[in-house]
Amino acid sequence: MYGNGWINESVSDNSQIKFITEFEKDLPLRNISLTEYERRLKKLVTPAMKDMVPVRVVTECFRDHWAFLDIDEDESLSRELMFDKLFLEEMDDDEAEQVDLTDRKCSIPMLMLLGLLYCRSNRRQRAEKFYELVEIQLTESLSVDDVEFRSYIPFLYEIAYKLMFRLYCRHRDQTPSDDGSPMRCPEIDFNEYTPTTFEVDDKIKTSFTKIFIFELFVNKSRMTRKGLEDKFTNQIFNWLQPHHIRAKAYEKFC
Length: 254
Description:
The chain is mainly α. It has one domain (about 20-254). Helices cover about 50% and strands about 5% of the residues. The chain is built from eleven helices and four strands; from the N terminus they run ααβαααβααβααβαα. It has helices at about 20-25, 35-40, 55-60, 75-80, 95-100, 110-120, 125-135, 145-170, 200-215, 225-235, 240-254, and strands at about 50-55, 105, 140-145, 220-225. The strands form two sheets. It has a two-stranded antiparallel ribbon with strand order 1-2. α6 (about 110-120) runs antiparallel to α7, α6 packs across α8 (about 145-170) and α8 crosses α9 (about 200-215). The termini are far apart. The relative contact order is 0.15.
C-alpha cells in the first residue's frame, strides 16, 4: 500500500474545528487504498445498473475487508458512512420508511468521490480520479461551464463538512485523556457548527462552489486534462483534502 505512494497524507489543522480532522483518522476508509476501494466498489456493477447499485451489493463487496467488518451492523460507523442519505437515491421520508436499507440504491460516483477524499492515495491519483468523475466523456479538456463538473463541487462540501459533523456527533471517540488534557474528540452542539436553514446552507454551498472554480480555472474558460491534473497535484492539492474544504466552508458559516 505504501510502495505506490498510497498514504494518509499528514495535514496540519489548527482551525477551530480540528477535532473533525482527528475524528477522520478513525474512518475505515483510511485503511484501504483508493485503488482497492474502487475495485471493490465496481466489481459487481453492471452497465444496466447505470451507476445506481443496491446497498446489499456494495455491502457484499466490502464485508470481507478487515476495516469494514461492521458494515452489516445497523448504526455502525462503516454503515452510516457508506450509506448516508447523501449517497442514496432520493425518496420522500414516508417512502424511505417503507423500504429496507439493503434494497435502496446508492450512487457509485458519489461513493467514489467519498473514497477520493478519504482513502489512502497520493496527490496525482486523486487529481486523476477527480477528472474521471467530473468529465464522464473523458475528453482531453474541461470547460468551466461544464454542467457535470459543477454538479460535483457542492458534494465536496456536503461530504467533508456536513456528513463529517453528522458522523462525529454519533461516533466520536469519547475516551477521556489520561493526563487531564482536552479530549481528542470533545462533545459539541451540532447546531452550533452546521447550517439549520436551507438559505444558510445554500449560501455556503454557492460560495464554496464559486471559490473552488476560481481557484482551479482562475480566468480561463477551459483547461486541458493534463493541466487540470497537474494543477491539483502540484498547486491546489489542498482543495481535494477534507480539512481544507471544511475550513473554507466554516469560514462562510461563521
